[in-house]
Amino acid sequence: QVQLVESGGGLVQAGASLRLSCAASGRTFSPQYMGWFRQAPRKKREFVAGIRWSIGIVYYGASVKGRFAISRDRAKNTVYLQMNSLKPEDTAVYYCAAQSTTSDRYNYWGQGTQVTVSS
């Protein structure tokens, strides 16, 4: 079983930066992808960024491209989301997710961490 634990959320002003971390634990953790999603109140969950675990190819949602950066530390089983130039519309609960090699979708999820950006 894989467990994902996010950290690093908080309240910041517009224009500030935050870095989220997601530590994964499990006996044999080797996903295909790890990613970040977010969900704001009364909105659908939105893909933010993803990374191919083995080779590091990255993907971004249109609304964050150029401002956010995903990275991973394979030795620590940790994925990061560096968020720069934050906007009030980035306010949401951010979820870490992992897609195992036997799945065609993200099938492990963290509990989420709140990010609030004030104007």
Overall pLDDT level: 96
The total strand number stands at 11
Give the overall shape, derived from the CA principal axes: globular
Order of helices and strands: EEEEEEEEEEE
Distance between the termini: 40 Å
Strand count, sense and barrel status of the largest sheet are: 7 strands, mixed
CA radius of gyration is: 14 Å
Task: Provide the helix percentage.
Answer: under 10%
Beta strand %: over 45%
The helix count comes to: 0
> Runs with pLDDT <50, length 5+?
none
Protein structure class: mainly beta
Describe this structure in words.
- This protein has no helices and eleven strands.
- The protein has strands spanning 3-7, 10-13, 18-25, 33-39, 46-52, 58-60, 68-73, 78-83, 92-99, 108-109, 113-118.
- Strand 7 (68-73) and strand 8 (78-83) form a beta hairpin.
Key terms:
mainly beta; globular; 119 residues; seven-stranded mixed beta sheet; 11 strands; four-stranded antiparallel beta sheet
Strand and helix layout:
Layout: E1 3-7, E2 10-13, E3 18-25, E4 33-39, E5 46-52, E6 58-60, E7 68-73, E8 78-83, E9 92-99, E10 108-109, E11 113-118
Parallel strand pairs: 2-11
Antiparallel strand pairs: 1-3, 3-8, 4-5, 4-9, 5-6, 7-8, 9-10, 9-11
Please outline what is shown here:
The protein is mainly β and 119 residues long.
